Request: fold
Amino acid sequence: MGSTPVRFARSLPAALIAGILLLGGLVAAPAAHADDTFAPVPVAVSTTPGSIPRGGHATSTVTFQAFGPIAEVYVAFRNTVKGTFHEQLTRGTYNSADSTYTFDVFFEQGTPPGTYLAQYMNIQTVAGNQVGYWRDGSIYNPGNLPESGTVPVAFNALDFSFDTSGTVDRPHTTGVYRGADRYWDPYTMGLFIRDSWGRLGLYPTGGNGTWQPAYEVGSGWHIFNTMFTAGDFNGDGENDVIARDSAGSLFLYPSNGWGGWHPRQQIGWGWHIFSSIFAAGDFNGDGHNDLLARKTNGELVLYPGNGRSGFLAASTVGWGWNGMTSIFSPGDFDGDKKPDVLARDSAGNLVFYGGNGVGGWTTSRVIGQGWNAITKLGGAGDFDGDGANDVWGIDSAGQMRMYYGNGSGGWKSFGVVGWGWGGFNAVF
Reply:
């Protein structure tokens, strides 16, 4: 397979270690805006729990004294053992009613264990200004916003520890690089497309309901009849793609983290017996991304990933799935931090199947009708940046429709976000 890599600078700027942090694009002094009356100030912070086990998450909360809405927050944590920095682009939600900003702490595969101290916070306002605070409370204010006189709180309560070096699940998104310094955001949805020439392209998003320019990432992909994003399947910290050819061979295409691929690996044989194969995140809760596959007799089989490009023992997790015309996992759809599955039946009903986090199910219910008007559908990430995973669908007119999840197993809204998608023979 040929590829057209696009190279991004991913490393934390060396200036951070030298004492000048350029997080989130702090490279120019934007002009003050009228709705930024004062520089936002963090007045309360917390991370719960303070100790994160393998496969676990924590939620951090920051309360701001702010006179304009907050668009984004970046936090840099330092590992006290390694001395390395963990760049956390927050997957956050700002509540203007009480000026709180909440976000999930998320660790990539292979992140070293240890105590992580919050060193720096960069706040980006909707008006376009950026304000930074160091751990000692000193401020970086390139836009010269007036200061309110409120003293920022110490960051100690944001600190946490990561208990084990074992691998941790990464959602099965494509992920994107965001910000001027290209911070990796594993939650944000991006979509791969294949055209009639077999070329593979990537449509990244801006993390706020917009698309960024697409680019080609490979050629010769016409040989595959099934392709999907698999999250980090080999434990190297990058989100990968899995594809099946007409002979039933299953291949892993490991991302190199720079818009291209490491050499592909064959990871399975005889997968032609499955009428559907899709990524399911960490479906059994062991810290590794897994696959679900449906046989033609309707049996649904779980193939747990071992975190090293292979599989553990398979097990049956359901029957009767041959009545479904489309099956996919949107990731965590109901807010319990466990991957779920959505399926469309022949009548056009969209059915939610809640994963229990240990390889089974909690409940099922219909969450939509009329979905047989959609020719292709799927979901692998958060398109609009509100912290809830979304579902995309392409209708017969080639319109790309986005169905925005509400984070609790239902819908917030939907809208057309693109045209001309009917010309692609695969979208994932």
Q: What stands out?
A: The radius of gyration is 22 Å.
